[in-house]
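USER:
Before I trust my own judgement here, I would like a peer's view. Write it directly below this note and I will take it from there.

ASSISTANT:
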Amino acid sequence: MIPLRDFFSKRWKTVSGTITPFLPPSREEIGFDAPKLDVSNDQLDRSELAERAFSLLTELPIEWSVRVGLLGGWGEGKTSIANWVVAKAEQRGDVVVQLYSWKIRSDTQLWIEFAAKLLKALDERGVELEGTKTLKALIGFKNWADYPRKASEYFKTSEIAFGIIDNLLRITPEDIRKLRAKIPDRRIIVVIDDLDRADPRLIPTILLSLREVLDLPGFSFLLPFDSTAVATALANYNEAWGDGGLFLEKILDFRILLPEATADQKTAIFDEELQKHCSFIPFAAVKDVAAWLPPNPRRLKGVVRSLISLKKDAERHTKDEIDWKSILFASMIRTEH
């Protein structure tokens, strides 16, 4: 077996004291809106926020359960930050569990997915809880990759599922002792991404579970989401929770707010995207419209997408024949409205 330290030394290097991931080509960002995987490609200076989140998740007393909210709008880099936190946690030797809320369609599926990923992560570290043995026996365990589907087939009704899964996820003092013995100074870090894209009916269940069911020693939770969308879902679920903001204060121990991109950052992102996809547009035109660029990075990329189809037309003219400033303004107006 390859030592954990040696395994990660092949994927990471130290540059000026900063841990920087090396990723195989298959994991590089693909597509316009893919999250950043390489911290060296940090156009928005988000690596500092990743460091802050990682510190909050890992440096408090191991007996504490910690919940950190990573709050920002759609397309502002929350998932990229979460990716960097996960990479640092894996390098440190923490147990990492990642859930994607948009994939969850029911309470039952939520708990099946969580049970599968948690027990799998612990099993791979040599920590076998009672729930692992039980669930393996129930579904005829063969391969972890097939685990959620098998579990879904077994649990025919939500009533049966909740009863059994509740027992499987109920971590006892003896389980905690085993965890501490196997990973004495490491945490179980759970990242629940895209909470604002989950079924609004599930959001209260997920958040209440973090507070009541999974408030366990050594567990840390990172929740990247748009606080406005989640607060609205909470308010619609229960009028007694007001606008939902006060409810979130009871759930989250810490909040990290993503700042809006600066003018220089917006210009740099816009120019880089144009160089990648629309190199036929002169940089001078970008400077002319820089003050009016959309504040959201994903919307910036949307403007660039709207310009790609102009390549053939641009090739038929000289640069002096095209009023790029007006074209860029028109593209921004069309994309934003």
Summary: Confidence is low (pLDDT under 50) at residues 1-29. The two ends are 56 Å apart (CA to CA). Strands lie at 12-15, 18-21, 66-71, 95-100, 188-193, 219-225, 254-257.
